[in-house]
């Protein structure tokens, strides 16, 4: 599998699955445009990418995807730098706890603005360039888009929206040679849940619980999701579009617990 000569834009690339995807694709020769809110973390990820031996230095652009101006800047500057776009990885996202009884409209709006609206906007801007290269989009969804879970209502709704977005846009762009797929991770060891409100003790308990809720008996690692993203973005997945692929250790198949 090679991405030499391919330009890949990854959002949320400063940590977690986005960072792992950047390093993995760097090893495969991709020319990377990396975006995130934390410039220092982006620099550290870029350094890891350069250590893979990839001779194309990652192009970094900080920005807030809920800002329309920043989103346009991210796409425009990527095209200005590389003159093309072959793959868009919509990875950036947030999680928050809350039920129908205590999720405020402000929290709901924040979840959808970050997890759905920004994906819609960046994809819309990227599509003309992806049509030119017969490229593709990989969206990072969640097992929460496939299954119902209590206590994370707005997050589940946002990820199910991403899965439907994936299918609809896949149908719209298939005649133009552009594929659109999503990966649906289960519990993966990143900072996502802690940023969503879990303290260290609660997070440790959450990871321990995942040994029971995931068929393979463990949480996943970012690198495992990154490898699946690379597969879907590669010519090896040339006949796959509109798919939501679980990368969840069997969580989607387990009985509710």
Automatic annotation (TrEMBL):
Entry-linked Pfam families: adh_short_C2 (PF13561)
Keywords: Oxidoreductase
UniProt cross-references to Gene3D superfamilies, sorted A to Z: NAD(P)-binding Rossmann-like Domain
Keyword rRNA-binding: no
A biological-process GO annotation: lipid metabolic process
Protein name (record): Ketoreductase domain-containing protein
SUPFAM superfamilies xref list: NAD(P)-binding Rossmann-fold domains
GO MF term (any one): oxidoreductase activity
């Amino acid at each position: 599998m090679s991405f030499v000569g391919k330009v890949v834009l990854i959002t949320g690339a400063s940590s977690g699955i986005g960072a792992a995807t950047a390093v993995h694709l760097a090893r495969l020769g991709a020319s990377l445009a990396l975006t995130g809110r934390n410039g220092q973390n982006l620099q550290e990820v870029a350094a890891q990418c350069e250590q893979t031996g990839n001779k194309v230095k990652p192009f970094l652009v900080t920005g807030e995807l809920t800002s329309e101006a920043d989103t346009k800047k991210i796409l425009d500057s990527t095209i200005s730098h590389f003159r093309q776009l072959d793959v868009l990885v919509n990875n950036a996202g947030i999680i928050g706890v809350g039920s129908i009884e205590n999720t405020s409209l402000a929290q709901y709006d924040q979840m959808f603005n970050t997890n759905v609206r920004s994906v819609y906007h960046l994809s819309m801007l990227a599509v003309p360039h992806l049509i030119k290269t017969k490229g593709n989009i990989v969206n990072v969804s969640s097992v929460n888009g496939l299954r119902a879970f209590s206590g994370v209502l707005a997050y589940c709704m946002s990820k199910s929206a991403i899965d439907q977005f994936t299918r609809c846009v896949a149908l719209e762009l298939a005649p133009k040679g552009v594929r659109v797929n999503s990966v649906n991770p289960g519990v993966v060891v990143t900072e996502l849940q802690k940023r969503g409100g879990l303290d260290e003790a609660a997070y440790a308990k959450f990871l321990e619980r995942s040994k029971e809720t995931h068929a393979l008996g463990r949480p996943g690692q970012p690198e495992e999701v990154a490898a699946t993203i690379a597969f879907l973005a590669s010519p090896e997945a040339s006949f796959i579009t509109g798919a939501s692929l679980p990368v969840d250790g069997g969580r989607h198949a387990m009985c509710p617990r």
